[in-house]
Automatic annotation (TrEMBL):
Residues 760-780 are annotated as: Disordered. Pfam families: Glyco_hydro_92 (PF07971), Glyco_hydro_92N (PF17678). GO terms for biological process: carbohydrate metabolic process; glycoprotein catabolic process. The lineage of its organism: Bacteria, Pseudomonadati, Pseudomonadota, Gammaproteobacteria, Lysobacterales. GO terms for molecular function: carbohydrate binding; peptide-N4-(N-acetyl-beta-glucosaminyl)asparagine amidase activity. Keywords: Signal. This is Putative alpha-1,2-mannosidase. Residues 37-288 form the Glycosyl hydrolase family 92 N-terminal domain.
Length: 780
């Protein structure tokens, strides 16, 4: 967010003093949406979320780090924090929310009372380094705020965030010397030689600046910072520890410390001394991917003054405004899960642009955004499914900026293609597909048009036609990706086919029928990987034969699929489910095979070698994205009551408002967006179709507060455990017999009303005309 709701300090004090308990305010009314958020959800297990302070789509994610291990052990600490840990290494300013890969953890700082140690030490040896033990009872995590007591120092640390600035407030014990240590060596996903270069200096006015370049997930990434304190330093010491680098231990015995203005090298630290303090120390830090000067400018504009409480109020106001797009009536725990999911869905993509409009692009050069804000942190293989479609409903103005950012990235790409998995403007080439295409197409089809549509379509076509990428040259020649030339070929074929379909939708809407015809034909390429004999999507070799031997349960690296197997990927034909029904021999066979997926007895050890496949219900793996649309597919075969049954199982088993409440990586909000949509009663199975497939609601009432003052309400009568099925549905008071609602119907405002009942209604939504659309018509 570029603007915050500003509150007077008196209002802040009143707001922060209101007591809350068990999801109910003191007056007996439901707590606010902001109060229902618990940033601790997902910080344990495989959720990979962070508990620290950020604002919606902000540039700063200021959070505690409990470990920054070497790359072989980094998976559990992809967000820097694991709830099961007992000590804190420090507080860094950049984090991914729920990613399946790790990096960032930039500008690590640690307040210290008393003696200073230069290395973090080990958790099992208290006092061996600068890390400190903590107790969860001392933690307080809110949307936009985090606090903890560092037990080994007796320091109360508080964090909040603005758009480009992280704010710290440290209350030191009286009588002990206060220090702030900055360590530029460690990073999440740390390994020997990751830091290519770093700089650290203290300027004449006391501003600390610096930066570093790393060769982590995005090679050659650069990040700069500027830091100021509300009290003058009594002394400082800058260290270059490069002589004896031991990265896994973060140091060695050969240290070179000099009390001078600056240091450069690959292993830098700074210790800033303040003597005994009788009031809290305020620290503010701005970052920039462009330069130190830009970081200073960001700090000057977005970080004026040292009023921590006012900044905390602004962060809260930003989240209250973002969360106010949805009003939910549900039991306390459900509201907590819902609003926490909505919170997680609005963290990324993050702003990656300085106050002067400059940003770093995928060519590692500096560019200037004109007429839009540049955003990065794109886990596109995940977020095209639900997180970005949710933003088209709740944040359409942001969607304009998101699309403009994708186009700008393509225009500065050395390869001329859209981002695949990018952050801070830089590309990682992680995962498969060209899923920026459906993100753009979905926004365009929904009437979001605040960008150059021709440039967008050109970027989409360029990405879908770049032969060297992921076997696209063979895909364009053969109609599939051959497994003897490309790994994970079956997944690539079906994902490319869907992306092609979404591109065709936008081209057709723009009157570019020749482009639409080309990509509509390519959208049928899923059939080239479908084996009618086995009923599975499979990988083919360049000679046309399916690869043998074939095991539909085989998953992971070296198989035909990306983070999945044939049981999961054979259903990824969202653009043509009716065609898949026909290919499987009709509705009964389709439903039978889908039932077999959910009802199978599967040993979780079968996926022990694939970290991301979690949350098993049979072969269905809710902890990973290829499964996310599958429960809704019964609607396409005329059995919507089975969708309702499967969704209840997923919602009952895969989400809880606890640190381990996410069964898999949140993947920058995708897991959370799935929950938000499903709780409301519908889901975007096929982005760019403008249709949301109806499941069943899991909240009593939800109201979308849409732009222009429009409101769309979903309500459910008789919603309880004994009434799990949809009896009837009305839209604006009229019976709705189809199993989908259109985007245009939602944004126009109105009411979707469900009446729930104890037994399945096997007549509602069963007719062929009631089903969501597909490329192919339903077979007679």
């Amino acid at each position: 967010m570029s603007k915050f709701i500003r509150l007077r300090r008196g209002l802040l004090a009143a707001a922060l003093s209101v007591p809350f308990a068990a999801g109910v305010a003191a007056a007996g009314k439901p707590v606010s949406a902001w109060s229902a958020v618990d940033p601790m959800v997902g910080t344990g297990g495989d959720g990979h979320t962070f508990p620290g302070a950020t604002v919606p789509f902000g540039m700063i994610q200021l959070s505690p780090d409990t470990a920054m291990p070497d790359f072989k052990h980094a998976y559990k600490w992809a967000a820097g924090y694991q709830y099961g840990d007992s000590s804190i290494l420090g507080f860094s300013h950049t984090h991914f929310s729920g990613s399946g890969h790790s990096d960032l953890g930039d500008v690590l700082v640690m307040p210290i009372a008393g003696d200073v140690r230069l290395d973090p030490g080990t958790p099992d040896q208290p006092g061996s380094g600068y890390r400190s033990r903590f107790d969860h009872k001392s933690e307080k995590a809110e949307a936009g705020y985090y606090a903890v007591t560092l037990a080994d120092y007796g320091i109360r640390a508080e964090l909040t965030a603005g758009t480009r600035v992280g704010w710290h407030r440290y209350a030191f014990p009286k009588g002990k010397p206060a220090h702030v240590l900055m360590d530029l060596r460690p990073s999440i996903y740390d390994y020997d030689g990751k830091v290519l270069w770093a700089s650290l200096r203290v300027r004449a006015d006391g501003t600390v600046t610096g930066g570093r370049s790393t060769r982590g997930w995005a090679p050659g990434r650069q990040l700069f910072f500027a830091m100021r304190f509300n009290q003058p330093m009594t002394s400082r010491m800058l260290y270059n520890r490069e002589k004896d680098i031991v990265y896994h231990g973060f140091g060695g015995p050969g240290n070179r410390a000099e009390d001078r203005d600056g240091q450069t090298g690959r292993a830098l630290e700074g210790v800033f001394d303040f003597g005994p303090l009788d009031k809290p120390l305020i620290v503010k830090v701005a970052v920039s991917s462009v330069s130190e000067d830009n970081a200073i400018a960001n700090l000057d504009k977005d970080g004026a003054g040292f009023d921590f409480d006012a900044r905390r109020a602004e962060a809260r106001g930003a989240w209250e405004k973002a969360l106010a797009t949805v009003d939910v009536d549900a039991p306390a725990k459900t509201r907590e899960t819902f609003y926490t999911a909505l919170y997680h869905a609005m963290i990324a993509p993050g702003l990656s642009m300085d106050v002067n409009g400059e940003y770093r692009g995928p060519d590692n050069q500096v560019h200037t955004a004109k007429g839009f804000d540049f955003y990065s942190t794109w886990s596109l293989w995940d977020v095209f499914r639900a997180q970005q479609p949710l933003m088209t409903l709740l944040q359409p103005a942001k969607s304009n900026d998101f699309v403009s950012s994708l186009i700008a990235s393509q225009q500065s790409s050395p390869f001329g293609i859209l981002p695949v998995w990018a952050y801070q403007g830089m590309e990682t080439w992680c995962m498969i597909g060209y899923h920026a295409v459906p993100v753009i197409a979905d926004a365009y089809m929904k009437g979001i048009r605040g960008y150059d549509a021709k440039a967008a379509l050109d970027a989409m076509v360029a990405s879908a036609s770049y032969g060297p990428y992921g076997g696209l040259d063979d895909y364009m020649k053969l109609g599939y990706v051959p497994i003897d030339r490309q790994p994970e070929a079956a997944s690539k074929t079906v994902e490319y086919a869907y992306d092609d379909w979404s591109l065709a939708q936008m081209a057709r809407a723009m009157g570019q029928n020749d482009v639409a015809d080309t990509f509509t034909k390519r959208a049928g390429n899923w059939r080239n990987s479908f084996d009618t004999k086995t009923g599975f999507v499979r990988a083919r070799k360049s000679d046309g034969a399916f690869r043998e031997p074939f095991d539909p349960g085989q998953a992971g690296y070296g198989s035909d699929f990306t983070e999945g197997n044939a049981y999961q990927y054979s259903w990824f034909v969202p653009q043509d489910i009716a065609g898949l029904v026909t290919a499987l021999g009709g509705e009964d066979n389709f439903v039978k095979k889908l039932d077999e997926v959910f009802d199978a007895k599967v040993d979780p050890k079968a996926f022990a070698h694939v970290e991301d496949i979690t949350g098993l219900i049979g072969w269905y793996a809710h902890g990973n994205e290829p499964s996310h649309h599958m429960a809704y597919l019964y609607d396409f075969a005329g059995q919507p009551w089975k969708t309702q049954e499967r969704l209840k199982t997923v919602m009952d088993t895969q989400y809880t408002p606890t640190p381990t409440g996410l069964v898999g990586n949140d993947d920058l909000g995708q897991m959370s967006a799935w929950y938000v949509f499903t709780a409301m009663g519908f889901y975007p199975v096929t982005p760019a179709s403008n249709e949301y497939v109806i499941g069943r609601p899991f909240v009593n009432k939800v109201t979308l507060n849409l732009p222009g003052g429009k409101r769309f309400t979903v309500s459910a009568e008789h919603l309880d455990a004994s009434h799990p099925y949809v009896g009837q549905v009305t839209l604006n008071g009229k019976p709705l017999d189809r199993t989908y609602v259109r985007h245009e119907e939602i944004v126009a405002g109105g009411e979707l009303k469900f009446t729930m009942q104890a037994q399945p209604n096997k007549t509602w939504g069963t007719a062929p005309s009631a089903r969501p659309s597909s490329m192919s018509k339903v077979a007679p």
